Amino acid sequence: MRLESVRSRPLKQFFSTLDQEYDGERNSEGERHGHGKARLPNGDTYDGEYEHGLRNGQGTYRFRNGACYTGGYLQNKKHGQGTFFYPDGSKYEGGWVNDQRHGYGKYMYANGDTYIGEWFNNNRHGQGTYVYKDTGSKYVGGWVNGNQEGEAELIHLNHRFKGKFLNGNPLGRGKYVFDIGCEQHGEYIEAEQDKGEEEEPSLLVTPKWKASEITKLTPQGENTPFPRKTSLVVAAEAVEERAAAAVTEEEKMPATTVTDGSAEGSDDEPSLHEASREVFSPVKYAGEEDEGSREEENKDQEDQGTTGLEDKEDESKEAE
User: Fold this and answer.
1) pTM (2 decimals)?
2) b/e map 179-205, b = 16+ CB within 10 Å
3) Portion of the chain with pLDDT greater than 70, in percent
């Protein structure tokens, strides 16, 4: 008699009795379908669209730790355009695929830095611009799996560097362009390491800048060599003065910055090398790494909550 009475009751009413944590529409099979609100066992909440029991369409998911995502879903995963607010105050707005930042998007970090560009599997990947808030400097160019890599330009207040990057450091031929109207050409070479008999070579070796020549800028952007005597001396002194001022200003960058190596004793023109000392900020800040781990934490919580509700509905179907 009890089983018959259960079967005689409307299916929606039956599931509503078992699932007190969901308020919304269902289909004829009793699955969450349409718009609804749910509270997950871990304390997270979801308000949005469902399809056959899964989050599908537009919705807002609030985590109990203060994080919040609002945007598109596909089969319970973030997909399409959406905005994620993190507990530390950082925010990502852009494309998502399979729960990962993917496509084009903007990330505003907790320390004020910003990145606008391409993403792939949760990493900066492709072409993008990273702006350092403390100094106003910005990196414009290629990225590979979160690292600065490929052709790029590092722009500072009164000068810039154009060249290639690898694993976050400049490497190979490039040039410094100074706003006084000259360029310093040269290349970044890997520094030699002091290796003991049993010591492994360090992977974190900053390349050193080796200057070759100074050229002046023309209105058409063409480079012509300076005369090798007085003009070169004057230009070198001007570059040295401006570079010194730039270094002083850039030393105000975050404490995590990495400086290039000191001048080599074999340089013919120490003043030119001194002028080329450049300060590069590492690609990742501690805040970025923390953000990644926090998002994984949030993802685990979301998955656990979803599993709990799905198990609950499966149990209710078995009870029927």
Assistant:
1) 0.67
2) eeebbbebbbeeeeeeeeeeeeeeeee
3) 57
